[in-house]
Amino acid sequence: MWLMRCFLGILIATQVSSSAAASPRKVELQKNLERNKARTGGKAQPIAWKPASKFADNAITGPKEPKYFHEPGVAAAGHYDQRFFSGFVNDRERHESLRHLIRSWLQWSQMQGVETWLAHGTLLGWWWNSRILPWDTDLDVQISEATLKYLAENFNMTKWSYDFDEENFHGTYLLDINPYWTNRRRGHSSNLIDGRWVDRNTGLFIDITGLSETHRAQRPGVISCKNNHRYNVKEIYPLRDVLFEGFKAYVPYAYDIVLVKEYRSKAFTLTEYEKHQWQPALKSWVQKNSTQPYTQFTLKNGKTIKIKREDPRGLEAVPQPSFMENISRLVHYW
């Protein structure tokens, strides 16, 4: 067992070093980072975990808080900010908007020395292939309560512009911190989200939630958000330095434990979800209608039959992963 752990440790180190190798695309992204940093005048102010503030143990009493963030009153529009919603975007536009959202957030947070890490479905997307899950409609990041306080006092309602020259893209984003962030318990469930990083062009957003030690006496070292996702501090810190959508990002130290607690172990093994299928050889989620070697037809008598399609993209044409690729995937289970 000890030898096995050493072997896996070497594989991890090799994988990390190879992923960090310089590439023309990474050089171009670094140029964008430096240019945007010069324009916004970012100052490094790293914030680590701090004990609960005076707000954390305050129980919510009195009348129900009014809901702060609002979504359009349209069916299936729950992942758009009402203020900037002008209509639904198609799947390609949605994916590109979310991709630029997270890249701009990662750039901005590093410029300002703001500590943040990937959470929920966004964290799961990183685990699979360091990309946004293709069916995601919004993104999630987490911060400490100390960072949340810092954002509320220094950057609330500020607008930021970013350029990505390699894609000829320009976007503007709003950082909006919920004024009820100081109530650190769930309360009336009207304001579970502490902040948003909003795309002013589409209305799509990143949900920002803070973690607080709300019951320090009863559960020391346990931190939670207002939606009752609980973590041990040691599961979050020290943060791991990773790449996500080509940019430097952070994930919880015990990301596997965090994901299993939220999605169970099937999150690591389920290879078909939301009309997508995981293709190991491609290291990507692909829509099933472009990978299935069969088309299903319904006959007049109600029975169904499968007819094989002559499609080079069919599953039988996808090469099987190599031994080393399988070992690399197994590293994530340790």
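Next protein, fold it too.
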Amino acid sequence: MSTIKSVFPLGFPWQTQDPFLFCVYHLDHYPEGNEELGPKASLEGRTLGNNFTLKDGWRMYHGKTVPGFPAHPHRGFETITIVNKGYCDHSDSLGAAGRFGMGDVQWMTAGRGVQHSEMFPLLSTDTPNPLEMFQIWLNLPQKSKFVAPYFAMLWHEDIPIIKTESSSVKVIAGTYNEHAALDPAPNSWAADSANEVAIWNIHVEASSTYTLPKAKSDVTRTLYFYEGDRIVMDGQTITPNHGIIVDASEAIEIKVLGKNAHFLMLQGKPIKEPIAKYGPFVMNSDEEIQQAMQEYQLTQFGGWPWPQAAHVHDKNKGRFAKYPDGNIVQK
């Protein structure tokens, strides 16, 4: 029996399995920044406010001056945002804020409802500003759909990275060879170790072999091969920009050919509940989606306490997190 269940091309967003809802990979080679923290380049020819076409190696997304995603609502799930290169400015309706990047991770539970913005400030005015990031949506079970929103920063310096001579594994969630990740959000599906939720960013050197350890329970597992040349798994040669659904009950040997290989792995016990989705809302029924839309129209999930929907922080702010209780952590 093959340990590979299927191989599929990576689109935008990436295909996921329960308990994950969505995963998107952003790789933008932004140029030098201007005084407004946007690109020091012409924006002509771009559909500002909805620019998802890769032009000159980068996109503006929903941003009109600074690339990114101005204020928008969420309900019923969690966002886990991993920024490997570049920076993300977070602001939300709880009054929480932060600038994170260069390996930091933000974990946000939308729960009963929150607005937030995610902008990508181009801080350097004399060198390019590359951005590499993942955003993962992790579902909440029905019992947790209406928990209080929660925001936390997992700083790069604190996240376990397990290294060997030819590989490194960044353990964002779950346990890797007895090395536990930082605590997830308290109401997360990942907070119960029995659910064996794992998010690992794996880097393997060329001309080496890496073994992906088996899971302890019956979970879904998807390996995303997003950068490299070729790998061989279970006798099958696979090229980059492919996802691989594998049998998590067996350890899997991966031979890396050509260039170094980079993977994201998502794993977890399925929630196995009905899913109703409409844009930024994920509930269990269409009636709950209608309720979410009505409540957002009436309450704006607490309103927007920032001067602009596309709020960015001061250029010299550095990496920081401001929590809803007013506590500020500066890195």
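About the second fold: The first helix runs from residue 286 to 299.
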